[in-house]
C-alpha cells in the first residue's frame, strides 16, 4: 500500500516545530519509548551475555542463587537499604507514569492538531491521557511477558539437544523483538485512537503491521537515517562550540583561577545537557508524529 513519505515527514515536522509543548511530551515519552532499530542495537550486549548463559546452561541457577543470597544477607533488611530500595522504586514508578502519560498525551495532541488544526491545553491533554494509562501499562506488561517469556523458553536445556545452531535461536529472538516493538507501537495507537482493548489492540496491530510491512520498514529506515544525520550534526556542533569554553578553561588553569575553571566547566556541561535534551525531545516527538500520521493514512485505506 503506497504512501508518499516526503509530504508526511514535512507535515510531521511542521506539527512538531510549531507546537513546542510536544517537545515536553517527547522528552518524557522517550524515557521508556523505543525506536525499533535502536531496540535491536541496544540488545546486542544482552544477546552477547545471553549466548554465554546458553552455553553454560546456568541462567536459572544463577538467578535463584542471587535471589537467595540477597534474602539471606542481613544487610538487605537494614533501614538504609530498605529506604534506598523504596526511594528507587518510587522514583522509577514516578518516571514510568510520567513517560506513559506523556506518550498518550503526544498521540492525542498530534492527532488533534492534524485533524482539527487546534491546540489542546496542557490541562485538557493531561486529563484525557489519564484514561488510557492502565491499558497502555497493561500493553507494556503483555509485551514484556512475550519477549522475556520467549527468552526464558530459550534457556531450557532440551532445546540444545536438537541439531540446531545457536545462531538460529538468536535470529529468531531478534525477529521477535523487532516485530513485537513495531506491533506494540501500533497497538498503542489502536488503544488511544480507536478505543481498542489490550488484546484486540495487539491483534489488530499485528494484522496492521504485516499488511503494511514494506512501508513500515521503509519509514523506520528513513527515521533511522535521519537520526544518524541529526546525531552527526549535533556532535559536530557540540565539538565546534566547545572550543571557546576549552580555551577559557585552559586560560583559567594557566592563571590558577580555579573558581573560573569550575564555573566554566559546570556551565558548559549544563548547556550541553540542555542542548541534547531539546534535540532528543524534538526528534522523539517528530518520530511519534510520523508514525501517527502514517497509521492514520494506512488505517483509512484499510477501512475504505
Number of strands: 0
Instruction: Report the order of strands and helices.
Output: HHHHHHHHHHH
Largest sheet: none
Shape: globular
CA-CA gap between termini: 13 Å
- Low-pLDDT runs of 5+ residues are 35-48, 50-61
Mean pLDDT: 79
Helix count, DSSP H or I runs of 4 or more residues: 11
In terms of quaternary structure, the protein is: single chain
Domains (count):
1
Describe the structure.
This protein has 304 residues and is mainly α. It has one domain. Helix content is 84%, strand content 0%. The protein is built from eleven helices and no strands. The longest helix has 46 residues, at 258-303. The radius of gyration is 23 Å and the shape is globular. The two termini are 13 Å apart.
Keywords:
mainly alpha; 11 helices; 304 residues; single chain; 0% strand
Give a quick precis of the structure.
The chain has 304 residues and is mostly helical. It has helices at 5-17, 21-29, 36-56, 59-72, 79-116, 122-130, 133-153, 166-194, 198-211, 213-254, 258-303. It has one domain (5-303).
